[in-house]
Design a protein that fits this description.
This protein is an alpha+beta fold. It has a single domain, classed as Imidazole glycerol phosphate dehydratase, domain 1 (Ribosomal Protein S5, domain 2, 2-Layer Sandwich), CATH 3.30.230.40. The protein has four helices and ten strands; from the N terminus they run E-E-E-H-E-H-E-E-E-E-E-H-E-H. The strands form three sheets. Strands 1-2-4-3 form a four-stranded mixed β-sheet, with helices on one face. A four-stranded mixed β-sheet has the order 5-6-10-7. A two-stranded antiparallel sheet has the order 8-9. Helix 2 runs parallel beside helix 3.
Length: 195
């Protein structure tokens, strides 16, 4: 399997975001968005998915919504690019992750057919300085730009911070499983011969 690295730079009048994902890296992670909780979520994703990540995001207009959205787009695009033509991967992944009283599940198909069902069950209007709608938008934008089928759900919980952490970690573990090299798989993992 050749090198699986995705590099994306996204420049708009609102933000500038660069992301480099190395699926077969050694655990090097550097994330700087200016939003500590967003950094924490993205670092958790890379840590538990076990890929290298260098992500820098700069807000030009000071609007958090634009920064959160463009960060998710660039991250999703770089993760998508890191898969290349998706030869020799497991393709499917799933995980159930507890975070104290919360439980989240993730199921993924790395086929190139976009579909997303995301249920975060957030109750508060803001978590660690990021609005509920921006956190929901982060997950939707990430899902849209991954070019995969993704189902994420918080099954139950009381603490919104724990719910979000559980769901990002469930996603990370499901991603690691699905993006892993399958030693038995020859070529594209599809009966169609194409993703």
């Amino acid at each position: 399997m050749k090198s699986r690295i995705g590099r994306i730079t996204r420049k708009t009048k609102e933000t500038e975001v660069s992301a480099v994902v190395n699926l077969d890296g050694k655990g090097k992670i550097s994330v700087k968005t200016g939003l500590p909780f967003l950094d924490h979520l993205i670092i958790s994703l890379a840590k538990h998915a076990m890929f290298d990540l260098k992500l820098n995001a700069i807000s030009k207009d000071g609007i958090n919504h634009h920064l959160v959205e463009d960060t998710a787009i660039a991250l999703g695009n770089s993760m998508d690019a890191s898969l290349g033509n998706r030869t020799g991967i497991v393709r499917f992944g799933y995980a159930s992750v507890p975070m104290d009283e919360s439980l989240a599940e993730a199921s993924l198909d790395l086929v190139k057919r976009q579909y997303q069902k995301i249920v975060l069950s957030i109750e508060r209007n803001q978590i660690e300085g990021i609005s509920k709608e921006d956190l929901e938008h982060f997950f939707r934008s990430l899902g849209q730009n991954l070019n995969i089928c993704i189902h994420l759900s918080v099954k139950y919980g009381e603490n919104d911070h724990h719910k979000i952490e559980a769901v990002i970690k469930a996603f990370a573990i499901a991603w690691r499983m699905a993006a892993s090299s399958d030693k038995k798989q020859r070529g594209i993992p599809s009966t169609k011969g194409a993703m």
